[in-house]
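Re: the request from the purification team.
They wanted to know what the chain is likely to look like in 3D before they choose a buffer screen. I agreed to run a prediction and write the result into the notebook, where they can find it.
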Amino acid sequence: KLGIFVEDMRRSGVACLPPDINASHAYFTVEDGAVRYALGALKGVGEKAMEELVAEREKAGPFNSLEDFATRIDPRLLNRRQLESLAGAGAFDRIKPERAAVYAAAETIFAHAVSAHDQRTSGQAGLFGGNSAEAAPIRLPRDASWTLAQRMAAERDAFGFYFSAHPVDASRHILAAHKVKT
């Protein structure tokens, strides 16, 4: 049903903004006359986990980087598959626009989150007294890239429908010339 609602909004001239870990909430919100897609509406992420993510963002401010995100999230609420869904939907695009690389690094991001959580709960600091989870950069695969079709497929998996583009968009002008209606 969400695909139908998004299409109705677009037909009505109401913009539907993509999910963003620094702007979206667990539920749909209105932002400057547009609707911001809900993090909790993505397939497989869960509203409870997204409520906790939003609560952390509101408590400590926006996430500045993937490292900051991994350091602050509770790995008991998120898993690799949820991170892949967020990345596939483009929720990390504002802090790291290489969507395919973030998707491919979901396991690494999750491992950083587990390590940071273990350090917080054990009360241990890094070797030189600092928080080593913040110092360790998350290495993204350099060769990860998606074609437009792969990007659309990842969005379809995350949203349950095509969000930013559709496979027939390339032929839309031909369909319009033949007066085809969606």
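For the purification team: Strands lie at 16-17, 29-31, 34-36.
Please add any questions underneath this entry.
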